């Protein structure tokens, strides 16, 4: 009888949790349109991808890749939705079937041909070596014993790996070019090897680097789909690309971003703290709202999940106790970034369905933070004096009523400091979701720095924004804690 009551207690929060997860899934996840293709692209890779201040590619000058895709889609009559991630995540998402295609300044290599079907080439690219303006390095021969930065998964990184032993330098990997370049400018690395057009564009917009030597390892760039899939999309892209070449539109797009009068990033004239705040208020506000929204929804799910685990953890039946321990052990042991990639990129290959980005972020927070909350809830209940249990049971209260009416109210008071601390950690952990492309506050910072190259000032602004939110949460939690003690 007692076992049945415990099951009843667990089913209520569990059913609520499943219902909320179902409601969180956008309609397109349950009934995706066959006519809309999901196309992955890079976060920051000028001049091929140039985000606007809102972190989108809806502006008039979105970059070579986006303009090519926009023109071809219009000419061929298909719709698409862009998924903005790091280049490495784009390739993984393509191979897992989470996206239908990738256009991100992607070079055609023999290794990539094993898993990707490429379109005809629309541009020939190469890599270059860049150093700080005051550097004495003049070429590859001067790199012995030096540290060279590369962007993960790119042709630049592959080329650098192939010559590393010959020239005797060390490699550091970054997910974005701008971070790699800023590291060289700051003196933490000696040089960067990256795509020529991207570096030249960055230098024109004030990265503080210079290119030394000649362009190397010239390779064609192309649009890609998963090998053996989306043949219709690939055929439409090739047909539209031939039209762009024939009409001269392709060359006009390329010249627009690589010619002498190439467009520059949206660099503001006033680069003071107040100037940056004023010119980027909309983008920072949107990023802050996404962070808050992820935190709130993630905490709700994590609390429900943690409550289920906590109740299971104090159950007298060893079966429930064992399951709770295993779940808590697993999700506390997996790094959150790994969990995010697994849910967003890995799971679709298993379940056969795409997972919306926001939903993937919420599930990541729920599982990771919920495991910690489960341990807190269990510890809170176990901290209540055993005499309270015995007194409740001696009055004839069943196990579940003794828990909810006597033990739980006392246990939750003991949990409040730990739960508040976990809420704050959850808010900060939303920044990790930028790795899978969630446009929260940290990812917004990456986008804005790619436009104005004011890394120190922008990160200072974002750090202060996080600090203000966490301070407000701490004040509220302290107030609630004092009230509950009364």
Please describe the structure with a list of short key phrases separated by commas or semicolons.
MetI-like fold; five-stranded mixed sheet; three-stranded parallel sheet; 486 residues; D-Maltodextrin-Binding Protein, domain 2; disordered N terminus; alpha/beta; 12% strand; cell membrane; Solute-binding_3/MltF_N
Helix/strand layout:
Elements: H1 2-24, H2 27-30, E1 36-42, H3 64-76, E2 79-85, H4 87-96, E3 101-102, H5 110-113, E4 116-118, E5 123-132, E6 147-151, H6 155-167, E7 170-174, H7 177-185, E8 191-195, H8 196-204, E9 209-221, E10 224-226, H9 231-247, H10 249-258, H11 273-279, H12 281-314, H13 318-333, H14 336-351, H15 357-383, H16 386-394, H17 399-429, H18 441-452, H19 455-485
Parallel strand pairs: 1-2, 1-3, 6-7, 6-8
Antiparallel strand pairs: 4-10, 5-8, 5-9
Overall tally of structural domains: 3
Characterize the main sheet: 5 strands, mixed
Total number of beta strands: 10
Summarize the helix and strand pattern as letters.
HHEHEHEHEEEHEHEHEEHHHHHHHHHHH
What is the spatial order of strands in the main beta sheet? Answer: 7-6-8-5-9
Task: Give the C-alpha Rg.
Answer: 26 Å
Summing up helix and strand content along with how strands pair, one would put the structural category as alpha/beta
Number of helices: 19
Helical content band = 55-70%
Commentary on this structure:
The chain is of the alpha/beta class and 486 residues long. It has 3 domains: 234 residues, MetI-like fold; 136 residues, D-Maltodextrin-Binding Protein, domain 2 (3-Layer(aba) Sandwich), CATH 3.40.190; 97 residues, Periplasmic binding protein-like II (D-Maltodextrin-Binding Protein, domain 2, 3-Layer(aba) Sandwich). The protein is built from 19 helices and 10 strands. The strands form 3 sheets. It has a 5-stranded mixed sheet with strand order 7-6-8-5-9, with helices on both faces. The protein has a 3-stranded parallel sheet with strand order 2-1-3. Strands 4-10 form a two-stranded antiparallel ribbon. α6 links the parallel β6 and β7. α1 runs antiparallel to α12, α13 packs across α15 and α14 crosses α15. It is elongated, with a radius of gyration of 26 Å. The relative contact order is 0.13.
């Amino acid at each position: 009888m007692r076992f049945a009551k415990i099951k009843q207690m667990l089913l209520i929060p569990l059913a609520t949790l499943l219902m909320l997860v179902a409601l969180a899934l956008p309609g397109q996840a349950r009934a995706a349109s066959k006519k809309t293709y999901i196309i992955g692209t890079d976060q920051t890779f000028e001049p091929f991808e140039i985000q606007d201040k809102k972190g989108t590619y809806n502006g008039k000058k979105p970059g070579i890749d986006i303009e090519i895709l926009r023109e071809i889609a219009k000419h061929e009559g298909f719709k698409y939705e862009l998924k903005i991630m790091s280049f490495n995540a784009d390739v993984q998402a393509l191979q897992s079937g989470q996206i239908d295609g990738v256009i991100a300044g992607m070079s055609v290599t023999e290794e990539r041909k094993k898993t990707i079907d490429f379109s005809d080439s629309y541009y020939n690219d190469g890599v270059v070596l860049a150093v700080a303006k005051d550097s004495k390095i003049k070429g590859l021969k001067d790199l012995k014993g030096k540290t060279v930065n590369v962007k993960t998964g790119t042709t630049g990184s592959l080329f650098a790996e192939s010559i590393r032993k010959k020239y005797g330098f060390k490699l550091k990997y970054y997910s974005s070019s701008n971070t790699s370049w800023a590291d060289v400018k700051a003196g933490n690395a000696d040089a960067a090897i990256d795509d020529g057009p991207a570096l030249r564009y960055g230098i024109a917009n004030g990265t503080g680097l210079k290119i030394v030597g000649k362009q190397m390892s010239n390779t064609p760039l192309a649009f890609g789909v998963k090998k053996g899939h989306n043949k219709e999309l690939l055929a439409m892209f090739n047909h539209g690309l031939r039209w762009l070449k024939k009409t001269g539109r392709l060359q006009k797009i390329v010249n627009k971003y690589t010619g002498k009068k190439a467009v520059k990033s949206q660099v503001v004239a006033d680069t003071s703290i107040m100037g940056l705040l004023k010119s980027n208020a909309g983008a920072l506000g949107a990023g802050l709202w996404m962070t808050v929204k992820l935190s709130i929804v993630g905490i709700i799910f994590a609390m429900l999940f943690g409550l289920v685990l906590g109740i299971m953890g104090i159950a007298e039946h060893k079966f429930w106790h064992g399951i709770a321990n295993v779940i808590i052990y697993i999700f506390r042991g997996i790094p959150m970034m790994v969990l995010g990639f697994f849910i967003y990129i890995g799971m679709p290959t298993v379940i056969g369905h795409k997972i919306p980005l926001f939903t993937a972020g919420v599930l990541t927070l729920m599982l990771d933070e919920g495991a910690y909350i489960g341990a807190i809830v269990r510890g809170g209940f176990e901290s209540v004096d055993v005499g309270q249990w015995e007194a409740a049971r001696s009055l004839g209260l069943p196990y579940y009523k003794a828990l909810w009416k006597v033990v739980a109210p006392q246990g939750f008071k003991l949990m409040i400091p730990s739960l508040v601390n976990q809420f704050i950690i959850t808010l900060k952990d939303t920044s990790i979701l930028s790795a899978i492309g969630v446009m929260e506050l940290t990812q917004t910072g990456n986008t804005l720095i790619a436009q104005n190259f004011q890394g120190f000032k922008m990160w200072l602004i974002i750090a202060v924004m996080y600090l203000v939110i966490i301070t407000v949460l701490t004040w509220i939690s302290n107030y609630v804690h004092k009230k509950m003690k009364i």
